[in-house]
Design brief:
Pfam families: ABC_tran. Keywords: Antibiotic resistance, ATP-binding, Coiled coil, Nucleotide-binding, Transport. By secondary structure, the chain is α/β, with parallel strands linked by helices. The chain is built from 11 helices and 12 strands. The strands form 3 sheets. It has a 6-stranded mixed sheet, with helices on both faces. It has a 3-stranded antiparallel sheet with strand order 2-1-4, covered by helices on one side. A 3-stranded antiparallel sheet has the order 11-10-12, covered by helices on one side. A hairpin with a 2-residue loop joins strand 10 and strand 11. The radius of gyration is 22 Å and the shape is globular. The C terminus is likely disordered.
């Protein structure tokens, strides 16, 4: 396992079996302090099982897992106070008011405050952070779906977690709320040095948020890298588009940089509206999953280099 003191999440040879079925096969990855990891994968790939093991809610069949320096199976209250969880949905406490509930929950974290991390968040600051100031005194039962989701996020971070798990956190968000959420994740990672591991089916969101992307398929990590690394590793041809003398041109090439260089050498300032369109994260994701599902690789893939051979 990784020994770097900056590593807060370290997984090696993680396996999970239900009866006679293996749902996780030697899963291995790590995350550093302040890093945002996004886990992608088809339904049934093992994402939720993996996260539940890391949270300490499910016992693994085999492998080593280190979360904030401890095995999640044996994490005590101090360890759990350092972790935040945003579930897909949570419908309790409908009669509580927003500020009242967050203040109450925050009180549980006060004994675990440290010189480095003062817990919990100030209640009004937290409410403003998730965009619920106007609803601070509203009963939870009266909140809209998007407002309720903002509250779910606030509940997950009320204790200023060092490691935050989020399962489909923006489900039900409108575009404005989603943009605010992205800003919140970047603030937590950049200013609070919170490590974030989240799952999503929104590939555009993954590209905007992730420092690294893990793609899980068939219970295996089939790719691990930044959005740019994954796109570059799987990209084949790129489309170069430009205008010259009012005429639009499109050329497909596997060497776009070289082609653009030659294009300017030949035509110079006559080139206008130049665009180079490479594979999107969605193209990359689909290519990697299809490659795995078609069994083109005989052995489990454990690295970006292996998946792109």
């Amino acid at each position: 396992m990784t020994s770097n003191n900056n590593v807060v999440l370290d997984v090696a040879q993680l396996r999970m079996r239900y009866d006679e079925k293996d749902v996780l096969h030697d899963v291995a990855f790590h995350a550093k302090r302040g890093e945002v990891l996004v886990m992608l994968g088809p339904n049934g790939a093992g994402k939720t099982t993996t996260i539940e093991i890391l949270e300490g809610f499910r016992r693994r069949s085999a492998g080593k897992v280190d979360v904030l320096g401890a095995d999640p199976e044996h994490g005590d209250e101090l360890w759990r106070a350092r972790i935040g969880v945003v579930l897909q949905s949570w419908r309790d406490h409908a009669k509580w008011r927003v500020r009242e509930l967050l203040g109450h929950l925050g009180g549980y974290y006060s004994p675990y405050s440290t010189a480095r991390i003062v817990r919990p968040w100030d209640t009004d600051e937290l409410i403003a952070l998730v965009g619920l100031t106007e609803q601070r005194d509203a009963k939870i039962a009266t909140l809209s779906g998007g407002q309720r989701r903002r509250l779910d996020v606030a509940i997950g971070i009320v204790g200023k977690p060092e490691l935050l798990f989020m399962d489909e956190p923006t489900a039900g968000f409108d575009p404005a709320a989603r943009r605010d959420f992205h800003d919140l994740v970047h603030r937590l990672a950049d200013l609070e040095e919170t490590t974030v591991l989240l799952t999503t089916h929104d590939l555009d969101e993954a590209a905007k948020l992730a420092d690294r992307i893990l793609i899980l398929a068939g219970g295996r990590i089939i790719a691990d890298g930044s959005p740019e690394e994954l796109a570059a590793a799987t990209a084949g041809e790129a489309e170069v588009r430009w205008t010259r003398d009012g005429q639009r041109f499109v050329h497909t090439t596997t060497e776009s940089t070289k082609y653009v260089h030659e294009l300017f050498k030949q035509h110079g300032e006559q080139i206008e509206d130049l665009e180079v369109q490479r594979a999107s994260l969605e193209d990359t994701y689909m290519a990697l999953v299809r490659r795995f599902e078609s069994d083109t690789a005989a052995e489990p893939v454990r690295s970006l280099q292996e998946v792109t051979r």
